[in-house]
Amino acid sequence: MRETASDIDGAGLKLRGISKSFGNLQALSRMDLSVPRGELMALLGPSGCGKSTTLRIIAGFEQPDTGKVLIAGKDVVHLPPNRRGLGMVFQDYSLFPHMTVAENVGFGLKIAGLARAEIAKRVREALKLVQLSGRDDYFPTQLSGGQQQRAALARSLIMRPSLLLLDEPLGALDKNLRENMQFELRRIQRTMDITTVMVTHDQEEALTLADRIAVMVDGRVLQVGTPLEVYESPANRVVAEFLGTANIFEGVADRHTIRVALGDRTEVLAAQPELRDGAVLLGIRPEKMWISGERNSRGNAVAGTVIGHVFRGTAHVYEVEVGPNLAPVQVLEQANSRHDTRVYSLGTSVWIGWRPEDAFVFPAEREGRA
Amino acid sequence: MLTHRAVERLINGGLLFYTLAFSIFMLAPILIVVIVAFSANSYVSFPIENWSWRWFQRLYEYRPYFDSFVVTLKLAVLSAFFACLLGVPAALVLSRSRGKFANAVMTFMLSPLSIPSIVLGFAMLFYLSRIGLGVSFISLLIAHVVASIPYIVRTVGGQYRSMTPGFEESAMILGCNGWQTFWYVTFPMIRGAILAGAIFALIISIDNVSLSLFFSSPTTATLPVVMLSYLESSFDPSIAAASTVQLIIAVVLLFVIERLYGLRGITG
Lengths: 370, 268
What we know:
Chain A is α+β, with helices and mostly antiparallel strands and about 375 residues long. Chain A has helices at about 5, 50-60, 100-110, 115-130, 145-155, 175-190, 205-210, 225-230, 235-240, and strands at about 15-20, 25-35, 40-45, 65-70, 75, 85-90, 165, 195-200, 210-215, 220-225, 245-255, 255-260, 265-270, 280-285, 290, 300-310, 315-320, 330-335, 350-355, 360-365. With about 270 residues, chain B is mainly alpha-helical.
């Protein structure tokens, strides 16, 4: 989406060849990343993938072994954290327990030596932005989790940082609050037009909040793209399986056709123009598949037997067996209206299928790291 | 057949009895000392026939008692202060460092807890005499500081370890340098622990006999030392009165710690 902007020097954040090891453990190996001005980039990966180390290197709490951290075009590797002009919200918010909300939010300005009246004015503005007006004299323990998070956000934003770092921003909130805060966080980030890097292991959090996602595994960035790109066209099996569920089949590509031993079929269609011939993996997300009692003539269709079914409120999820040596295929069907959705009971013979353009294909050798 | 619940009750009842009996066994002598302090007799006896305050008055009038009490208080306050000055920075550094060296230093700083104070006192007397300090208030102070440091290190270190690094890191991100981070964030958050450790140091110092004995002279004798030598020549209720005063100081200070910090932090 904004690839061209990322090439402009002097804006946003750039990581160039960052390596870091702790003893024998290689936490990051020659990592590159560009975050254009105003973008919200999510570093997504399982724990231990190096995403938190990356954040701590950007903040200045860790020194990289090699590489550069460019913030607004300037290498800040040798600057201490207090001179990098960043904002950071920690997972547990780390609001100072001995200060009121207003004192917490105004703390950075006080350290910067601003006049008391100016601080009071900007604290008022910041609290208004995060909808905490009137809570000035509360202590952090008197606030709910969501309010604490907003206070921590205000404390960072009041400094007008050139870059905002968020460590698992919604991790400590319960589910309902989480959904509210997703919108809230996005609104504030857009209003402030502030370049943001967020670390998360929660794929939903990354998909909903980020402009772009960098999927990290074992200290490497496996793919960078918009939520749509990484979800719809994952670069490899690890990315495909980390972001949601994927049915993955082994096959052989031969001129836009992929041969997969699937049920009674050995050939399926794929719409991947750049597909190179050879061993490939073919993936389809459960919600991209259809399930029906009759054979649908369009696209790929395979016969199978329902061996599992769960109802998830908004959808039915089926497990369908399509072959003796194949993992069951997951199919998700939206529960549209109460009357027109047929529920297939266990043991029913069904047809499942997908449109060729909804599948993603990647060369089989790239799954090596899974 | 006993039901599960009945067995549980029996066990609980047994435990309660044991605890009570044990407490009485431990506390009764102390209680008797306090009662004896109010006796009008000129010898220690129990039960009391006539009550009086005369032995508390004697405490005030008998010079060695009064002078040594002043020395004891001065020593306690100064040793707590210097123990904080040395112990707090050490606790902060050591509780965030890992590795063999940090562990070794930590063990070393806590070692006065496990070394018999006779050994510690003898070693310190020998050492301090060699470097020319000998039997003096300074030597006494140094010995007490050494004995107090472990309490400061334990309370402050414990509190600091329970404080996630995020607080200090937030302060740094918000523009604080090292000193500002300490002054505005770390110090306010460990203040309670410092105070609790300092009070514990006071109690340890006021109470100490074995170290003080080594550095005792007419001008540096502490109250417990004077009491001990008084006991050698006479045995009257003034000893009980002095013990009662000490006891009250300790109880009040312990109560303050419990309020500030919780005793578990030190004993646990």
